[in-house]
Amino acid sequence: MSSGRHRAVAFAPIRPRPQRRTGSLGFARRSAKVQMSSVAITGATGFLGLHLVRELLVRNHDLIALVRDPGALDRIARFLELVGEPSRLLDALPRRISIVESDVSLPMLGLSPKAFQRLADDVDVVWHSAASTELHDDLESLRPINVDGTRHILELVSAGQRRPLLCHVSTAFVAGARREGVVYESELNGSAGFENAYEESKFEAETLVRDWSRRYDRTVVVARPSILVTDRPPHADLPMHTLLSLGQIMRDAATRLCGTSRTAVRVVGHPQGHLNFLPVERAAQVLARLTEAEHPRRVSTYHVVQGHDVSVRVLMDLMETLAPLQMTMQSAAPAEQTALEAFLDRSPTAAMLSHRRRYDDTRTVSLLGPPTSPIRVDLDYLSAGIGAAPVAPPAPRLGNRS
């Protein structure tokens, strides 16, 4: 678990490009409701990014994809093909999506000054979705993309002649190690510490965004999704998501430490623990709608969450289908742990089994209306999304799994 003594994020002043003078403040001010001709997106080939690209295209927005991969257009096309989009959309991709090879971890995104300024002047909206989501990485490994990358995107929107709207993808897990109560959209408080370096890096990035908005009186949309999932089976041409990565780590550890036989392990959790799993398709729909909505000035933060939570026991059941484990929940770590129990207890996601917090989404619902998705996220849904084929039938576990 990461300590609560997070690094103070130094923010070098970014001097926005002067605009034509109008009004008492001396700068052109445009409505926070954006009439878009150009939307740039980072992380366009990631798990969320691909779905957001799809939603924005369906809503008739042309895109500029800021990517490191020169083959990104092919990856986007393959994704759209796999999810069943019509051939007319696939055929239009070379006209609808411009690829700009760039790297958010580098100043000016690794572009020349001329190319950087041209890009800044060409966009009306920037969706910053690029992030390293490796939960087992340390903070110094995550900062170049998650923190420095955010700083470099702020430099881009600062330089733009059109004062582009920044839409920043954060995470509901900036709430850190706080396990109980209600987390409000207006809150950003690191005093409880963090349960892994990923949470801390995203907290630092969101802090940068808030400071920039306040300093330069700019409108920013911050979206905080919960745990993104899907019921679409894994595919070699699709990116992995958190549950797939977590299952692979647990399976590898169990096999390395205990072999292939099903092994009993004791894990720390709370019997009333619950988590919020959000279908990535719905997350992308909400983000696309936020792009087109009218927002008040300064930072508007929105929790993007599913309408119901899921018992942590469902997550335990899910992990048992992926790894040769028989998991038993306890309120505290046993005095003597096996090597596998010690590994699981040190995992960056171990504390999730004790989560009982809830994410308030009043702003999101007030702006977009209540969720209307009929999807029920449960064990069957989550199992479909990881292609779960049990390693061996797990023994029944007593307790509520709803």
Automatic annotation (TrEMBL):
Pfam families: NAD_binding_4
Lineage, opening ranks: Bacteria, Bacillati, Actinomycetota, Actinomycetes, Mycobacteriales
SUPFAM superfamilies assigned to the protein according to its UniProt record, in alphabetical order: NAD(P)-binding Rossmann-fold domains (SSF51735)
Organism for this UniProt entry: Nocardia fusca
Domain Thioester reductase (TE) residue range list: 41-285
Listed name of the protein: SDR family oxidoreductase
